Amino acid sequence: MLVGITYDLKDDYLAEGYSAEESAEFDCIETIDAIDSSLRTLGYDTLRIGNIRHLVDFLAKGQRCDLVFNIAEGLNGMCREAQIPALLDAYGIPYVFSDSLILAVSLHKGMTKSIVRERGVPTPDFRVINNQAEIAHVDLPFPLFLKPVGGGTGMGINAYSIVRDTVSLHQVASRLLADFSQPVLVEDFLEGREFTVGITGTGSKSRAVAVMEIVVDAASDQGIYSYKTKQEYLQFAKYHLVGGDIGRECEQVALQAWNALGCRDGGRIDLKMDSRGRVNFLEVNPLAGLNPVDSDLPILSRLAGVGYAQLIGRIMESAMERIAVVPERCIS
């Protein structure tokens, strides 16, 4: 079976003049090497396709593969993560991870929270600011937490993301609107413990890999798991697995959110405790980072005794259970 790999390579975008933060979600070559090697270890033939422009060229030449392992984050618009899945849908080529609809919806943190809240998943109260005029209409009590509605990898998050008064709210919201050209999510700031839950599987077969607590040194952006902290995680962040009652509550909330959204195959759910010690949903990452060294999903898997190739194997097993693959249609 031939598995194509689609991805956005960080070095390509840096060479085109994009900044480090603009390229933060894209992958380094070590990640592609690790995925490729793991797939081959699992018995698959692989073909590195690359980003959406490379995929368009690949398809236009009449080339095909049996399955695509897609980790491309995309570049433009709120449907950027859905672009390659939508194109593959049009050509009838199956792919790993969530479908185009889920990837489009889940990138918008406000829409995601609306869905999980409707399904009874606890999440901080929130508002979405679409323009300058809407800042004055935010009616939530301070303190609040602000971030771009479609950002990832801590983009736009720093020590100023926690706002405690109206002046700060206007300043930070205005800056985010200008810098990221997208709406801003405003939500109640939760000061409790922070967790991330790795999940593999789809629907009733979804399972938590492990629950990992993230403890950030207060010296880094007031203890926020920010863009800076994630870049300097060896110095400012500590990770450890959580079990017992808290671990079970985290798993329950994470799986409830995962299935409410219809996510598939593998990813992460980020959680945080409120002042009462209740675990709340923060956001979902249905295209979780897969760097074997410093991405949260491989880190928590490693802490739980699940090796990198084993993690990729679980993701592939879920995808293969969902689809009927006909190897004869492969054209190399």
Describe the model:
It is a single chain. With 332 residues, the chain is an alpha+beta fold. It folds into three domains: 94 residues, Rossmann fold; 64 residues, Dna Ligase, domain 1 (2-Layer Sandwich), CATH 3.30.1490; 130 residues, D-amino Acid Aminotransferase, Chain A, domain 1. The protein contains twelve helices and twelve strands. Strands 10-9-8-11-12 form a five-stranded antiparallel sheet. A four-stranded antiparallel sheet has the order 4-7-5-6, with helices on both faces. Helix 2 crosses helix 12 and helix 3 runs parallel beside helix 4.
Strand content: 15-25%
Let me know the number of strands: 12
Low-confidence stretches: 325-332
Over all CA atoms, what is the radius of gyration? 20 Å
Q: Remind me, CATH topology of the largest domain? A: D-amino Acid Aminotransferase, Chain A, domain 1
Q: What is the count of distinct domains? A: 3
Outline the biggest β-sheet: 5 strands, antiparallel
Net shape: globular
CATH class of the largest domain: Alpha Beta
Per CATH, the architecture of the largest domain is 2-Layer Sandwich
Q: How many angstroms separate the termini?
A: 11 Å
pLDDT averaged residue by residue: 93
Order of helices and strands: EHHEHEHHHEEEHEEEHHEHEEHH
Structural class: alpha+beta
| CATH homologous superfamily descriptor of the largest domain | ATP-grasp fold, B domain
Helix share of residues? 25-40%
Strand order of the largest sheet: 10-9-8-11-12
Question: What is the count of DSSP helices, taking H or I runs of 4+ residues?
Answer: 12
